[in-house]
Amino acid sequence: MEEGKMDENEWRYHGEGNKSLVVAHAQRCVVLRFLKFPPNRKKTSEEIFQHLQNIVDFGKNVMKEFFGENYVHCGEVVQLPLEFVKQLCLKIQSERPESRCDKDLDTLSGYAMCLPNLTRLQTYRFAEHRPILCVEIKPKCGFIPFSSYVTHEMKHKVCRYCMHQHLKVATGKWKQISKYCPLDLYSGNKQRMHFALKSLLQEAQNNLKIFKNGELIYGCGDARSPVADWRELAHHLKPFFFPSNGLASGPHCTRAVIRELVHVITRVLLSSSDKGRVGALRPGLRGPRVCEASPFSRSLQRQGKNTPERSGLPKGCLLYKTLQVQMLDLLDIEGLYPLYNRIERYLEEFPEQRKMLQIDGPYDEAFYQKLLDLSTEDDGTVAFALTKVQQYRVAMTAKDCSIMIALSPSLQDTSSDQRPVIPSSRSRLAFSVSVLDLDLKPYESIPHQYKLDSKIVNYYSKTVHAKDDAVVPTRLKESEDCMLVLHKV
Ligand SMILES: O=P(O)(O)O[C@@H]1[C@@H](OP(=O)(O)O)[C@H](OP(=O)(O)O)[C@H](O)[C@H](OP(=O)(O)O)[C@H]1OP(=O)(O)O
Ligand SMILES: Nc1ncnc2c1ncn2[C@@H]1O[C@H](COP(=O)(O)OP(=O)(O)OP(=O)(O)O)[C@@H](O)[C@H]1O
Question: Where is coiled-coil annotated (predicted)?
C-alpha cells in the first residue's frame, strides 16, 4: 500500500463475518481485511501483526498444500496510516449490519490483510468492463462422523448442520429451518446438488451470497433479515444466462433463470480447475453418505428408494478437497476433547513448552508435515494428542470456509480467455473458483466446541426427534417440494 495515497473515499464497505471486516477498493480489484474484536479487548499492535502474519503463513504453508495453488489466495499483511483506518471506520459504520456490531474493527494497530477481490476476480487478459457474477457458498461440514468415540447415536444418522438448524431457530438466529443439507451438496450426485443449491437459494442464511460486479445482490446483508426475492435475482441474472434477453419476463422466466444458475454452479463445483499435484491427504470417504434429516433423502425413502445414487465427487474439484481436509477430524470432538485435556495438563506442568508445541504458530513446513500422520492409535503421548488437536483445528477451519465462484461471459474467441469455460444453455461463461476464510481455528475454542456439540445433539434429540412423528403435515409438504425438484430439474 502506498502510504501517502490512502484515501478512505476510494474504499467501500464490502462485508464481514464474526472475526473480520472487509472493505473493497472502488476501482482496483483488491480488498482490505481487518480483524474485529469485542470492545475493550486490548491487543498490542505486535500481537495483531503476528496474528495476521500467521494467517498468511498458514494459507501459504498448509492450505495451499491441501487445496492446491489455484484455489487459495493468501494475500499479504499491510501497514496502513492510522488516520486512514480511523476515517474508514467512521465512514463504513452506518453500513454494518446491526447483528455484527458487537465487535469493533481494529483501528489501533494499522495492520490489515490485502487480498484480491474475489468477487471481481479478473485475469489480466480479462476485459475490465465485462460483467461479473460471483456466488459465495459456505458449505459447512459435508460428512457424518465415523469415529468410534461418538456416544450420541444421532450423530451417526443426522449431520451437524441439519441438527444445528433447530437450535439456531430456537435461539432466534434464523427464522426458519433450511432444507439445505451439506451432504447433498458434497454428494457429487447432480440431482442432490441441484436440490442443495435450490435450498440455499430459498433460505440463504449465512451460507449463500451473490455479488454482481462486486456488489451484494442476494443473501444476507443483515444476518437476521434475509430477503429471498427470486424475481429480482432473476432480473440480475438474465444478462448472464440469456444474453440476447430472448425470454419474456414472468414466473416462467424466473424459474428458467434460477434453474440455469443452479445447473451452472453445479457444473463449476464438479469441475477440476486445479492443475497442481495430487492432494497429500487420503483419509478415505467413510461414514453414511446420506443424512436422515435431509428432505431430499426423506423424499427418496418415501418413494421406496433407500439410498440415492452414489456419484461421488471428482478428485481434484474444490468440494472434494474441502471434504478431505474436513475429514482430518478423525476422532470427532468427543474423541478429541480428552486429548486436548492431556495437552492442557502437560502445559500446566511445563508452560514454557507451549512455543515448542507450535500451538500459536509458526505455521511452517514442519507444522504441515505433522498433519499428514493419519494414525488413530493412541500411544498415550503428548505428541499424539498434539497431532490430533492440530488436525482437528485444520479440519474445523475447512468446515467453516467459503467457496467463491466467479462467472463472466466468455468471448467467442476462447484463446483470448485464460480461464476455463462452462457452456450454459444460452451462453458461455468463463469461471474461476477460490476458497476463502482459511484462518486456523484457535486452540482455545476446543472446550467451546465440546460443549456446543453436546448442546446441538441434545436439543435435536430431545426436542425435534422426539416430536418427529407428530409433524406429519410439515413432512408431507417437504416431500411435495422435493418431488418437484426430482422430476423437473
Ligand atoms: O460452530 P458453528 O458451526 O456454528 O460455526 C460458526 C459460524 O456459525 P454458522 O454455524 O456458520 O452460522 C460463525 O458464523 P456466523 O458468525 O454465525 O456468521 C463463525 O464462522 C464461527 O467462526 P469463528 O468463531 O468466527 O472463527 C463458526 O464457529 P466455528 O465452530 O467454526 O469455530
Ligand atoms: N478476498 C475477498 N474478496 C472478496 N470478498 C471477500 C474476500 N474475503 C472476504 N470477503 C467477503 O467478506 C465476508 C467476510 O469475510 P470472512 O468470511 O473472511 O470473515 P470472518 O469474520 O473471518 O468469517 P467468520 O464469520 O466465518 O469467522 C465474506 O463472507 C466475503 O463475502
Answer: none
57-85 confidence digits (pLDDT tens)? 999 999 999 999 889 999 999 999 999 99
* Cα–Cα distance measured from residue 184 to residue 201, given in angstroms and rounded to the nearest whole number: 14
Q: Which ligand is nearest to the CA of 442?
A: 1
Instruction: Tell me the three cell numbers of residue 148.
Output: 468410534
3-state secondary structure of 305: coil
Sign of CA dihedral 51, 53, 55, 57: negative
Q: Which atom of ligand 1 is nearest to the CA of 141?
A: 3
Encode pLDDT of 208-257 as tens digits. 999 999 999 999 755 444 456 888 899 899 888 876 655 566 777 888 89
Q: Average model confidence (pLDDT) for the chain?
A: 87
Nearest-ligand number for the alpha carbon of 393 = 1
Cβ atoms of residues 329 and 146 within 8 Å: no
Strands 30-37 and 20-25: antiparallel
224: CA distance to ligand 1 center in Å?
15
Cα of 200 to ligand 2 centre, how many Å?
18
Residue 402 CA to its chain's centroid (Å)? 2
**For ligand 1, atom 6, which residue shows the shortest CA distance?**
400
Which atom from ligand 1 is nearest to the alpha carbon of 207? 11
Ligand 1 midpoint to CA 1 (Å):
31
CA distance linking residue 52 with residue 74, whole number of Å = 11
| DSSP secondary structure of 383-451 | HHHHHHHHHHHHHHHHHS-EEEEEEEEPPS-GGG--S-EEE-SS-EEEEEEEEE--PPPPGGGHHHHHH
ipTM over 0.95: yes
Nearest to 164, CA basis, from 389, 425, 457, 361: 457
Instruction: Report the atom number in ligand 2 closest to the C-alpha of 73.
Output: 1
- For 147-190, the pLDDT digits (tens) are 999 999 999 999 999 999 999 999 999 999 999 999 999 999 99
Among protein residues, the one whose CA lies closest to atom 20 of ligand 2: 17
| pLDDT of amino acid 202 | 94
pLDDT of residue 123: 52
Q: Which ligand has an atom closest to residue 224 CA?
A: 1
Residue nearest atom 5 in ligand 1 by C-alpha distance: 400
| Closest C-alpha residue for ligand 1 atom 9 | 206
Distance between Cα 114 and ligand 2 center (Å): 12
Alpha-carbon span 294 to 486, nearest angstrom:
14
15 lines ligand 2 (CB under 6 A): yes
| Ligand nearest to C-alpha 113 | 2
